[in-house]
Amino acid sequence: MSSAAAKPNPSTLLPLELIDKCIGSRIHAILRTNKEVVGTLLGFDDYVNMVLEDVKEYETTSEGRRVTKLERILLNGSNIVMLVPGGEGPEGTVAATS
Amino acid sequence: MAAPARTNPSDFLKELSGRPVVVKLNSGVDYRGLLSCLDGYMNIALEQTEEYVNGQLKKKYGDAFIRGNNVLYISGSKTKK
Amino acid sequence: MAATAALEAAGDHQLAEITVEEPLDLVRLCIDEKIYVKMRNDRELTGVLYAYDQHLNMILGGVVEVITVTEIDPETYEEIYKETKREIPMLFVRGDGVILISPPTRGS
Known about the structure:
The complex is a heterotrimer. By secondary structure, chain A is of the alpha+beta class. Chain A has helices at residues 2-6, 15-21, 89-97, and strands at 26-31, 35-44, 50-61, 64-75, 80-85. The A-B interface holds A 23-24, 31-33, 35, 37, 42-45, 49-51, 55, 57, 59, 70-76, 78-79 and B 3-13, 16, 22, 26, 28, 42, 68-69, 71-76, 78. β4 of chain B pairs antiparallel with β5 of chain C, so a sheet runs across the interface.
């Protein structure tokens, strides 16, 4: 009984602590309105507004996918749906499943 | 292992203040101009603002206030005015 | 947070001039001026700004509202823009529909 209490529950890692561990590495953000952004995470705040570097922005429309490259951005956290640590974006995802 | 250098949103915004920026809205419209200031809601004041729709210059404004809820991202712009 | 910072700054330095410390100051400078407002749903307004609050709810007077509707020609698939204009003497605008506010270009 006492040994169970000594082991820390792995789920005590808070979601934002996981994102904190991603600082300095690539991250893939899936946004509302068919947009995805991939970049190196430089920092973030309590709203998960994120500063990203060497960014690729993917816009998926009925006509296909448009990619925009950007140096450094502040991404508004209110549009983020999911974050994939280490993700290389829609291109990487397709490669992994095929 | 040393922790990587952090640039949090507030640090980034200090760097951008007074400089040319691109503000992209959720609608896909881009605004290019000089960043005058910005608040906690991401409301933005721009000077010498240009509005681009589908990459085409549509309109110019002297000053412009952009309501923060429409903002997708703010990016530093390399093209000096 | 930004507002309190601006207030502190004003207290410390005794700002002599009206300056743009935060974005809403730009709107404050437009009181009793004719402004342009870009709204969601392809609506544009021009009118005199009488009042506003922190949500960007606004009272505008002598308003001209322009609504742009895009239709696609069923034969040529070309986009056709149709503008509808109307005049409203006094108008309350709810802030959540606002995208952009621009003051009149000074000196013109």
